[in-house]
Specification:
The protein has 167 residues and is mainly β. The chain has two helices and seven strands, in the order H-H-E-E-E-E-E-E-E.
C-alpha cells in the first residue's frame, strides 16, 4: 500500500509523466510461504570490492558482504549478498535473476533488501522481491544488474511482477 501511494504521489513517483495517468497500482504474485528462508549470512573472509554492471553499461563498486544458502526443491542454492562501497551508509542487498525475468518479472532481475539479525541470520523472503526503478522509468534510472552467480534456475513466482508495458 505504501509503495503504491508513493508511486501515485507526483513528487515521489519514479514513473515518467506519460505513465502516471491510469496507474492503478503495482502487481504482485500471491505470497508463497515456501519462498521464505531464514539463513545465516556467511560473511566474506575479507572486505572485497566488486564491480557490477549497470543496465546502460557502466559499472559500479559494491562490497561483497558474503553469501546466503537455502534449499529449494531438494537443491541448495547460494547467492551473493552485497553492500555499499566503503564509506557509504551500510545496507545488505541481494540482486537476483530467475526464470520469470522477461516473462512476468523485469528482464533485468529483481532485488531483495536484507536485514542482519543479532545472531547473524537473514530472512531471504522472495515475497518481498522488488523491481529496480529502471523497470518503471528506463530513461530516468540506470539500475545495477545482478551478477551471473545470482541466477536461480527456477521461477521465483513471488514478490513484485512486471508493471504492464514497462521494459
Amino acid at each position: 500500500i505504501e509503495k503504491n501511494e508513493e508511486f501515485m504521489d507526483s513528487a515521489k513517483t519514479p514513473l515518467p509523466v506519460a505513465r502516471r495517468d491510469g496507474f492503478e497500482g503495482l502487481d504482485y504474485y500471491f505470497p508463497v510461504q515456501e519462498l521464505r528462508y531464514r539463513a545465516p549470512l556467511v560473511t566474506a573472509a575479507s572486505t572485497q570490492t566488486v564491480s557490477l554492471t549497470k543496465r546502460k553499461g557502466e559499472s559500479v563498486t559494491y562490497t561483497r558482504k558474503g553469501t546466503v544458502s537455502f534449499k529449494h526443491d531438494g537443491r541448495v542454492h547460494t547467492l551473493a549478498v552485497f553492500g555499499p562501497a566503503p564509506g557509504e551508509k551500510d545496507y545488505l542487498w541481494l540482486p537476483f535473476y530467475d526464470v520469470t525475468n522477461g516473462k512476468t518479472s523485469y528482464p533485468g532481475g529483481r532485488y531483495l533488501d536484507l536485514e542482519l539479525a543479532a545472531e547473524g541470520m537473514v530472512e531471504v523472503d522472495f515475497n518481498r522481491a522488488h523491481n529496480p526503478l529502471c523497470a518503471y522509468n528506463p530513461d530516468g534510472f540506470n539500475c545495477t544488474l545482478p551478477p551471473e552467480e545470482n541466477r536461480l534456475p527456477f521461477a521465483v513466482e513471488a514478490g513484485e511482477k512486471l508493471l504492464g508495458g514497462a521494459h
